[in-house]
Amino acid sequence: MRILPSTAHIEVSEQDGVDSIENVNTGPFVWLVAGAASIAGSLFGYDTGIISAVLVYLGTDLNHHTASANEKELITSLCSGGAFIGAIIAGLTADNYGRKRAIYAGCCLFTIGALIQATSYTISQMAVGRLIVGFGVGSAAMVVPMYIAEIAPTKVRGRMIGLNNMSITGGQVISYGIGAAFAHVTHGWRYMVGLGAVPAIILACILPFCPESPRQLIYHGKIEEATRVIQRIYKQASPEQVRAKVALIAAATEESKALNENESRWVKVKKLHTNPAYFRALVCACGLMVISQMSGFNTLMYYSSTLFALVGFSNPVAVGLVVASVNFIMTWVNMMTVDPIGRRRVLICTVWGMSAGLLAVAVAFHFIPVNTHTLVLEATTVSAPAIVVLVFIIWFVFFYGVSVGNTAWMSTDFFPMEVRAMGTMFLTCSCWGSNIIVSSTFLTMMKSMTPSGAFGFYAAICGIGWVLIYFFYPEVSGLTLEEIGEVFQHGFGVSYARQLRNDRKDIIVERLRSNEMSIPVGH
């Protein structure tokens, strides 16, 4: 039985079939726009990477004493706390003021916060700078994946959102390189945090050349402007295909407006939790994000220098650079494979590897003599178990980078237009909420549970996550945003999405056969 989404009633010619503009080759314009917007990802990536080196080289520059473990956790987690708040504010305003303005706000806040950090002489001043940086990171992290999802053609949407993930991991690699470069410079940590303002300033200068999301333009009644944007995105599309695409988006937008008419933001939040389809999309998207963050990956970003110093490496920042580079490479692999292979298949084939790697790290730590009260290594050389820790951390990052670390951000397309901003807000908040927990408890867990217990806990999270993904995460690669809105109308939509994708393939095959039969043979 063939399944078609409810939006199939929109008047599109039979030859076009289901949204045939998606089969048209796209020009460089949309890739340039997505790439420019993705610079925002480097703000998040740079901050998570640079704080690792900063914590090692702060010395006594703040309050004239060496920062304690609790002070380090506070400095680290405040950025996540600010990002949590920034994501909420961006989510509440993104529909009314547009996607681009929220990105502008993120750039300004990040720049201000970076400069405050660079000039800090007290823990409290550093904390304020971290909080303001968090506001900027949260705003950009919430809006950019949604913006890219709304401008991206269906067949490359996963790859384009992957550009943002590439930017995040690229920012981490750059931060480790800068950390190593300034490691032995007097007050070098100030240069480390201050340079974080550079990508924010670059993005703010590029944004005027990027269009607003066509869906957002149509939402505000700017049909002609949206049509011009779609023409630039689908450079080779016919006028009929462009009109059909505009009609498809307009119909979905009008339906969203009708559902949201005269509704307050609180009602939208309530609807997201009381409408079964919306709530299933929310659980699925946020659940995957929580798995990605609670796997403990960001402990490697925030505390990698501390962690590798703990097991005996003399240049922990350089070792952290290796780990960040592996993550960057695997993010590129994810970007190139996620659309043709499918998100669900990638996740099922990789999340188990994350759990196995963390379990091996937990076992190896059992044989490393660490004073759990001071988190100081009770040895003077790099032992064989320390090498095992490094190898399996790289193993873990290999599987993380190619799967959940990047795929979790793609779930912005789970939410229909009427709740997309709110849904993406909750998705981003689930990221930062989990981040707050991880960043503020890691050193404490290492002391109270031992390093083996801490990494064993993260391994269990990944194992449980694999089971949940298998049963509840649908495959939406290759579906339009309007079709994805139908998936969660049918439970968690695992079977329905599979059938819908098969039907889409059948339609394409039938069209190709029809075109072949219509070609005259000989003259």
Automatic annotation (TrEMBL):
Q: Which residues form the Major facilitator superfamily (MFS) profile domain?
A: 33-477
GO BP, one annotated term: myo-inositol import across plasma membrane
Its protein name is Myo-inositol transporter
- Family assignment from sequence similarity: Belongs to the major facilitator superfamily. Sugar transporter (TC 2.A.1.1) family.
Q: Where in the cell is it found?
A: Membrane
Say yes or no: keyword Transport present.
yes
Q: Does the keyword Aminoacyl-tRNA synthetase apply?
A: no
Which keywords does this chain's UniProt record carry?
A: Membrane, Transmembrane, Transmembrane helix, Transport
Task: Drop me one GO molecular function for this one.
Answer: myo-inositol:proton symporter activity
Question: Topology versus the membrane, per the UniProt entry?
Answer: Multi-pass membrane protein
- Extract one GO cellular component term from the record: membrane
- Transmembrane stretches, start-end: 29-54, 74-94, 101-121, 127-149, 161-183, 189-210, 277-295, 307-333, 345-367, 387-409, 421-443, 455-473
**Which reaction(s) does its UniProt entry say it catalyses?**
myo-inositol(out) + H(+)(out) = myo-inositol(in) + H(+)(in)
Pfam families xrefs: Sugar_tr
